[in-house]
């Protein structure tokens, strides 16, 4: 991702906690000088309303307006310059008058209260929370990762955990007032796993809801994901793709899913390096390759441009059947686009599609396990948000 203008490392909810960064996280942020979450939030830029005016180019007069922007029609402005009593207002643009300013303290102040009260294994979340805040566009756009040491998944053979938390952010530019979603970071490779829960978004319009209740519900969701993530990973490790039997390479697998070439190459390189065999790779390793590419090499910015690829990566882990179907459809479209170069090419294409379909058929039994687990998880989500 594009480098932020500034980055702040967090540890502990406030000055009353004595929180240390986990060793695996500290190794990746050796120069960090952590501050508390409360201190960091209060250091973020605030927004206030102020009067807006536009300049009439024909009189140099500044005309005040209660609107947020001013786009002027020139012929009408000229008429106003000639006749102060002109009936037609030269102001064109009418932005919403229901814009709600939501400052960081409005959102994250209630989270501080929840972190002091909610516990994990008897310890307040505020004593085990850590992460970072990233600022863009002069501090008008902010993203943050908040994790909880001990709320984790540990895989056999790995000393470093996958630590759970939330990623959240806001901006003052009208795109979203605030968002939050489930998040995890793999301490083994620093890969980030995003969108582990549905993204909750509050716009800059309408009434601002009770953020305390909001945070309580969202953190309950994250704990539910932590309970099930290990099972999803374990099942995905049992689903192998034999690329020696498939009509495309590992790199082409990611390209067919929709990754741009530069990300597909990085994802494939990581997956092949971490698989027992570069020709037979399980779905968890393929997912990890995708998150590796997105975490360390994505050239866009946080937000919608990243989210589309995160959904693809997550489907590899949580929806293997859908992933294979997407690859099959993309490969079939590719064959159609290449055209029919003769019976031999047509026969080769049919054989290639048949090999993909065999993989899909082999998945059916295991797919039921994924669907049952996902249905149960969604049901518990709904109960947590009720």
Brief overview, please?
Keywords: Coiled coil. The chain has 386 residues and is an alpha+beta fold.
Q: What can be said about the biggest beta sheet? A: 7 strands, antiparallel
Distance between the termini: 35 Å
Mean pLDDT: 85
Shape: globular
Q: What's the count of strands? A: 13
| Helix percentage | 40-55%
Element string (H = helix, E = strand): EHHEEHHEEEEEEEEHEHHEHHHH
Keywords: Coiled coil
Coiled coil: 353-380
Explain what the structure shows.
Residues 353-380 form a coiled coil. Keywords: Coiled coil. The protein is an alpha+beta fold. It has helices at 23-28, 37-42, 74-82, 104-117, 211-237, 250-257, 261-274, 283-297, 304-318, 320-338, 343-385; strands at residues 6-11, 52-55, 62-65, 119-120, 123-124, 129-136, 141-153, 162-171, 178-186, 191-193, 200-202, 240-242, 280-282. Strands 1, 6, 7, 8, 9, 10 and 11 form a seven-stranded antiparallel beta sheet that branches. A hairpin with a 4-residue loop joins strand 6 and strand 7. Helix 4 crosses helix 5 and helix 9 (304-318) crosses helix 10 (320-338). The longest helix is centred in the C-terminal third of the chain and has 43 residues, at 343-385. It is globular, with a radius of gyration of 26 Å.
Please give a handful of descriptors for the protein shown.
globular; 46% helix; 386 residues; alpha+beta; two-stranded antiparallel ribbon; coiled coil; 7-stranded antiparallel beta sheet
């Amino acid at each position: 991702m594009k480098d932020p203008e500034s980055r702040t490392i967090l540890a502990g909810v406030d000055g009353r906690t004595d929180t240390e960064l986990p060793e695996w996280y500290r190794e990746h942020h050796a120069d960090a000088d952590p501050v508390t979450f409360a201190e960091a939030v209060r250091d973020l830029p605030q927004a206030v309303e102020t009067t807006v005016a536009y300049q009439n180019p024909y009189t140099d007069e500044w005309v005040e307006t209660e609107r947020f922007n001013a786009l002027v029609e020139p012929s009408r402005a000229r008429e106003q310059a000639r006749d102060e009593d002109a009936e037609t207002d030269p102001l064109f643009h009418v932005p919403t008058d229901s814009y709600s300013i939501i400052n960081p303290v409005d959102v994250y102040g209630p989270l501080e209260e929840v972190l002091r009260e909610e516990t994990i294994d008897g310890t307040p979340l505020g004593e085990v929370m850590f992460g970072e805040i990233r600022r863009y566009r002069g501090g008008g756009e902010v993203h943050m990762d908040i994790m909880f040491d001990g709320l984790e998944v540990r895989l056999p053979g790995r000393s470093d955990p996958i630590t759970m938390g939330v990623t959240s952010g806001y901006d003052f530019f009208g795109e979203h007032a605030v968002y939050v979603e489930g998040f995890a970071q793999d301490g083994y490779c620093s890969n980030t796993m995003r969108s582990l829960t549905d993204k909750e978004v509050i716009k800059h319009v309408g009434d601002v809801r009770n953020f305390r209740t909001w945070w309580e519900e969202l953190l309950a969701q994250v704990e539910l994901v932590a309970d099930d993530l290990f099972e999803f990973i374990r099942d995905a490790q049992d689903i192998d793709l034999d690329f020696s039997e498939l009509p495309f390479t590992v790199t082409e697998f990611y390209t067919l899913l929709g990754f741009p070439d530069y990300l597909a190459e990085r994802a494939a390189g990581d997956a092949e390096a971490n698989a027992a065999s570069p020709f037979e790779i399980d779905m968890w390793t393929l997912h990890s390759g995708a998150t590796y590419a997105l975490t360390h090499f994505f050239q866009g910015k946080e937000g919608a441009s990243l989210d589309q690829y995160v959904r693809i990566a997550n489907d590899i882990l949580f929806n293997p059947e859908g992933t294979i179907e997407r690859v099959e459809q993309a490969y079939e479209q590719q064959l159609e686009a290449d055209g029919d170069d003769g019976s031999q090419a047509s026969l080769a294409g049919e054989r290639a599609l048949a090999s993909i379909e065999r993989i899909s058929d082999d998945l059916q039994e295991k797919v039921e396990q994924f669907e049952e687990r996902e249905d149960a998880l969604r049901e518990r989500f709904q109960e947590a948000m009720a």
